[in-house]
Amino acid sequence: MVIIERRPAAPARPPVRSRSRRRRPWPTIVLFLAPALLLFGLLVLAPIVVAGYASLFTWNGFGVPTQFVGLENFRRLLTDEIFAGDLRRTLLLVTLSIGIQLPFSLVLAMLLNQPLRGRRAYRLVFFAPYVLSEVVTAVLFTMIFSPNQGLANHITRLIGLGDLGATWLADPDTVMYSLFLVISWKYFGFHTLLYLAARQSIPPELHDAAATDGAGPWRAFRHITLPLLGPTIRISVFLSVLGTVQLFDMVWVLTGGGPIRSSETLAVTMFQEGFKRFHVGYASAISMAIFLISLFFGLLYQRFVLRRDLEGAVTTMGDRR
Amino acid sequence: MRISRRSLLGLAGAGAAGLALGGCGAGDGGSASGGGTIRWWHIANTDPMLSAWADMARRFEAANPGVTIEITALENEAFKTKLTTNIQAGDPPDIFHSWGGGVLAQQVEAGMVKDLTGDVGGWRDQLIPSALDAYTVDGAVYASAVDTGMVGFWYNKELFARAGVTTPPVTWAGLLDAVRRLKGTDVTPIALAGKEKWPGHYYWAYLALRIGGLDLMRQAAADKSFAAPDFVTAGTRLAELVALQPFQTGFLAAGYSTADGQAATMGNGKAAMELMGQWAPTVQKDSSAGKAGLGDKLGFFPFPAVDGGKGRITDAFGGGGGFAVGRNAPDTAIEFLRFIAQPDNARIEARTAGVLPVVKAAQDAVTDPNLKSVADTLASSTGFQLYLDQAFAPAVGQQVNDSVAELLAGQASPEDVAAAITTAAKQG
Known about the structure:
heterodimer; A: mainly alpha; globular; B: alpha/beta; 6-stranded mixed sheet; 4-stranded mixed sheet; cell membrane (chain A); MetI-like (chain A); Raffinose/stachyose/melibiose transport system permease protein (chain A)
């Protein structure tokens, strides 16, 4: 009603608006945008273009690439067992993250939302690992999984499992799960925080009303909390998948991709090819693959999963809904 | 359109992390180090050599007013990565460590390294023969040799005696026997850094050298093929050792000089031997619990001979370190290399027991018994083979390391190893 009453004022405006549009200071806009555009072009677009260009050559990285091979590097990529293995391992980590890490974070967020004593301290403790850099985390866990003095071994010995802890990172069959453990340790706090923030933005009236209607805690969670957490969960899955596809630091420091490539990721293979074997052309093809996988996943995910979420304030232009 | 421009750009940003590589090698930066600044990168990142070289740089600065030497001392792997990045960007440091061989050849081919033939010629006759071999590409010298050495078995005399192994083994069969005896005393026979693959490649390379002789390696380099039966036999012999499970628990994830790695396991007396270069005692000391190392308990013996092999037990495998000069380096950089190569300075290096010098006059300053035994073994050697991961092109060297690691983990057959390395050699 209020809105309708305001409308009569509108006709008086057009001349003002059109004048302001005419006087929109384009030079100023361009001037202020230029540094950002320049940096973006230089630091984001140029590397993509250069990598795309380099991926068409057999090149050891020295001097100017001359040996043009077209799409040969990509053809090789498609038949490369190591690349296929990287994809499998990435998929495994994505599955584990979505299946275990995120639900765990969600449960934790729900618990931390309860009025329990020392809640603040818990939140701090759970979020702390996220503050550490990936490299520090990896070094820390190298020590924990260390065969002689490692904490993992102390624990397994205490509970009567012998030297099991020492071999987690050294066994091709367990290294991915150990890696997942470390990744989870570092990132669960971040996702918990996202969920907690989203949970707290749900108006209490909804739960009060549900309680009045006789809904138990599970029904309230299932029909009120979970749907309203939807956008956050979808974003958290998105970040988790993209992070996994680009995983490098942690793996590099923790295992170097080993033992015998059993924990190698796409980015680790790229590094090995580029900086260890000097196959820069091939490494560029791998980096293009990582880029395209991220891009297509991102586009499809936004198109089909995030569609409704993104129709909110963030991406709509003007009054379009 | 559903996908707004904004979200597309956001995604491009997300993908860019994976493209960090693309940014390298793009620019031809060119060195800005004119005037009196010399950027010196070396790998002696621990004492005694870290301080010894820092001290030498300071003395050179004092004698040459206006010259500043900026030292960057990095651990091997970090060094290789950083150097590769800089060289691919066209900006090599003024003086940098080089192991010579195939890697140096690629750097030379790219025009990143100065030809030192004329300069080093001035002090060449002061060096032990063959010191510059690894740094010679197509007849021209591209680095000044600084230290030399070889790989051999470092062993704990006490643990050997306790296992009843009275003399170090001289045959492969003898080594396997010693391993069996050591296992009987509940000692880890061999410490190995499986995470870093280069220590593992020593076994395969040495076995190939003992079985096929030096000619086998030369032929492989010429033919770009490792298909010769002797390479497969080397893998078979190594598999015999692996079958005895001689390495420490979790060796596949162990580093070399880390807190719980190969050198620490050895230096803390938890393993009976390790196959490593002349720097092993220093690193053992540095990574052991009390920074004491094994002291008198430490001994050295050459890699054993293999029955029926064409190679001799006196053929040495190893390498040394030299300093290459970047393309844009000031002339004072070469002056500084000449300064380091002076006998008095080489003697300082020798006395630290950190390096085995290549300057003839400084050999008398080698007093450390361990280093002396390496020097003596090297002096009486009948042939020399450079580390395979340096001698060949990087792609081949890495494949040797990777494939041998697979063999050590029981995931590849001796035939697989030879075939994979041959494939890499053909691809280049």
